[in-house]
Specification:
CATH architecture of chain B: Orthogonal Bundle
CATH topology of chain B: MetI-like fold
Number of helices of chain A: 10
Number of strands of chain B: 0
Distance between the termini of chain B: 42 Å
CATH superfamily of chain B: MetI-like
Structural class of chain A: alpha+beta
Helix content of chain A: 10-25%
Strand content of chain A: 25-35%
Largest sheet of chain B: none
Helix content of chain B: over 70%
Strand order of the largest sheet of chain A: 6-7-8-3-9-10
Order of helices and strands of chain B: HHHHHHHHHHHHH
Number of domains of chain B: 1
Strand content of chain B: under 5%
CATH class of chain B: Mainly Alpha
Number of strands of chain A: 21
Oligomer: heterodimer
Largest sheet of chain A: 6 strands, mixed
């Protein structure tokens, strides 16, 4: 067992595309680290460099104390689960799981023993004589996991292993992955574009954008204190609502379009940096669950919006609404695969705002609805750099 | 009614062509093999029963031709496959210049057998041939080896020509098969601790098994029917020593006008090749289970 350390790792492909830029990341022994980001952000390149499947252009990768920059994949003692599972089609499940042990020239009886143990851990003992083509997606995924854990590797890499499964199976296998990782207790790097997987699985989550690390922290810290507009928009589903807003010169209020919201002293205390923005523009972020249907209590202000759509999910209502405030679209929500991202957030008035409210409220499309808010729950960002305004 | 009949009506032209140009000649050839058949209209074609077949088993040239065909298969097929697979493995990555080399390996396939057979005849000519000039350079004096007039050297010339012209075909099949192997399968094996040799043994070769079987079956069928290069370079000589079954069949039919005998030879060859192909396909299906 070992830690994984990346220091200033950069990857530039022969066509000049810089996939990863100066990445510093440390995954402690036993830690479950999730790397998340939109398509093309460089997360898979990071994984492949650690596995030794891609050369690194600059920087250092360590597994434990050993620098592995020039070590062949087979000598790194790292196991990997691929998105496509990469099971050997001509081999049985048992042969697939035992392949790495055969390559180590381990005695046959020991291979059989370890294959049976791994199969028992994953609940696949009944399928050992089957070929991969005779298995369902979920079963193949378990075999791929078995092939990785049977080696008892120093570190474990997973490249979007659940993305080929249907939604229900994905939820089930997510728990399975977490259980297995806890059991084997090795440093694990898990790559995904699904932020729910990232939040539920990771001890820590690293958010990557254009090959640059945006923030690396516990899932709750990422959610509560995003360091910039990109992370704020990427982490959370539905995404954080981001508006252009003006701070009054005396810091007493915030203007959202034609609406004015009183700023509490708590809000200023939580974000002392706001004092530099008196009379200036900021980007304000409001989580959908911080827009409430009921009034009174700790809610000191109200935002009024025209309801455009109501999604009843049973346990909650997702209310899509619009206001006359200019909405800032986080780059993460705008991006499509292969498209260049703007560095600065874009703004416009047509974008969707979402509130997550308790069921049972009489909300209808076309209503002018008053959402109660508590400004001390707001997040604030610099409108030029997109960086969170904290101190 | 028309709706029901339409698919069958659309099939009629293809079925007619197949029956006329494939099925009928096979049965007609089998029928001819039982006669002392003459090509001239109105000629008497006496029924011979199994005589042509019995004669084949007593004909020393058939034994020589069978041996030559067998040697041609066991020498040219494995070498073509090995070289084709090697070239495909080297050129499977899109390295600079790989398109040029891919074309270079494949170009002999699209050349004419007659033309390249003549070119090889000139290369291996006893007087003024390039090969004798090369050997002379090493020997330090002029040599005049009669390459195509001696059995083993003539066989070697035919083998070399056939391998050179045939490698591109197996190369292109293997290239497609190698391109079809998911990259993650190879990477997974490398991460699992396999050396490159073991990656080939445990992942690559099993993954292209279908292509290997396909190439083997078609190359063996093609090699068993070797004709043009022998006909153009040695005409089966000297003294029938380089005859193949096909060249001897041709000679019997169109030089000796023994059409019944040639048809019997063709029937036997067809049965052998059919049996071989069936066995290969059976093995392929067993491997796929």
């Amino acid at each position: 067992m070992a830690s994984i350390t990346l220091e200033g790792v950069t990857k530039v492909y022969p066509n000049g595309f810089e996939a990863v830029h100066g990445l510093d990341l440390h995954i402690s022994d036993g830690e479950f680290m999730v790397v998340v980001g939109p398509s093309g952000c460089g997360k898979t390149s990071v994984l492949r460099m650690i596995a030794g499947l891609e050369d690194i252009t600059a920087g250092t990768i360590r597994v434990g104390d050993q620098v592995v920059n020039d070590v062949a994949p087979r000598d790194r003692d790292i196991a990997m689960v691929f998105q496509s599972y990469a099971l050997y089609p001509q081999m049985t499940v048992a042969q697939n799981i035992g392949f790495a042990l055969r390559m180590k020239k381990m005695p046959k009886h020991e291979i059989e023993q370890r294959v049976k143990e791994a199969a028992a851990v994953l609940g696949i003992s009944d399928w050992l004589d089957r070929k991969p083509t005779q298995l369902s997606g979920g079963q193949r995924q378990r075999v791929a996991m078995g092939r990785a854990i049977v080696r008892e590797p120093s570190a474990f890499l997973m490249d979007e292993p659940l993305s080929n499964l249907d939604a229900k199976l994905r939820v089930q296998m997510r728990a399975e992955v977490a259980r297995v990782q806890k059991r084997i207790g090795v440093a694990t790097l898990y790559v995904t574009h699904d932020q729910i997987e990232a939040m539920t699985l990771g001890h820590r989550v690293a958010v990557l954008r254009d090959g640059v690390l945006q923030q690396c922290d516990t899932p709750q810290a990422l959610y509560d204190h995003p360091t910039n507009v990109f992370v704020a928009g990427f982490i959370g589903s539905p995404a954080m609502n981001l508006f252009e807003a003006g701070i009054s010169a005396e810091f007493g209020s915030l203007s959202l379009g034609s609406q004015r919201i009183a700023l509490s002293s708590d809000a200023i205390r939580r974000h002392p940096g706001l004092r530099r923005y008196g009379g200036k523009e900021v980007v304000v972020g409001i989580r959908p669950e911080d827009l409430h249907a009921s009034s009174g209590g700790s809610f000191t202000s109200v935002i009024t919006g025209e309801v455009e759509l109501v999604e009843a999910l049973g346990a909650e209502l997702l209310v899509h609404f619009s206001t006359d405030a200019r909405v800032v679209q986080s780059a993460s929500s705008e991006r499509t695969s292969g498209e260049e991202e703007p560095r600065m957030p874009a703004s416009g008035s047509t974008a969707d705002c979402v509130a997550r409210i308790e069921p049972g409220h009489p909300v209808r499309t076309g209503d002018q609805f008053k959402f109660s808010v508590s400004p001390d729950r707001f997040e604030f960002f610099d409108p030029t750099s997109g960086v969170a305004i904290l101190d | 009614m028309l709706r029901f009949a339409t698919p069958y009506l659309l099939l009629v032209p293809a079925v007619l062509i197949y029956l006329t140009f494939t099925v009928y000649p096979i049965f007609r050839q089998f029928n001819i093999s039982f006669y002392d058949w003459h090509i001239f209209p109105g000629a008497d074609n006496p029924f011979m029963g199994w005589s042509n077949y019995i004669a084949i088993f007593h004909d020393p040239v058939v034994r020589t031709a069978s041996l030559n065909s067998f040697l041609f298969i066991v020498i040219t097929v494995p070498i073509q496959m090995a070289l084709g697979l090697f070239a495909a493995a080297v050129l499977t990555d899109h390295l600079p210049g790989s398109m040029f080399w891919r074309a270079a390996v494949y170009i002999p396939v699209v050349t004419s057998w007659v033309v390249v057979s003549w070119v090889f005849s000139y290369i291996f000519a006893s007087q003024g041939g390039v090969m004798n000039a090369v050997v002379g350079l090493f020997a330090g004096h002029t040599v005049s080896i009669h390459w195509t007039a001696q059995t083993w050297t003539a066989d070697a010339v035919i083998w070399i020509l056939s391998i050179w012209k045939g490698v591109g075909w197996s190369f292109i099949i293997f290239l497609a098969a190698l391109d079809g192997i998911p990259r993650q399968l190879l990477e997974s094996a490398r991460i699992d601790g396999a050396s490159e040799i073991r990656v080939w043994r445990h992942v690559v070769l099993p993954s292209i098994r279908g292509a290997v079987t396909f190439v083997t079956v078609l190359l063996v069928i093609g090699a068993a029917q070797v004709f043009t290069q022998i006909f153009e370079i040695t005409k089966g000589g000297p003294y029938n020593s380089t005859q193949s079954l096909m060249t001897y069949m041709y000679q019997q039919a169109f030089s000796n006008f023994a059409f019944g005998y040639a048809a019997a030879l063709a029937s036997l060859l067809a049965v052998v090749l059919f049996g071989f192909s069936a066995a290969e396909i059976r093995i392929l299906r067993q491997q796929d289970v």
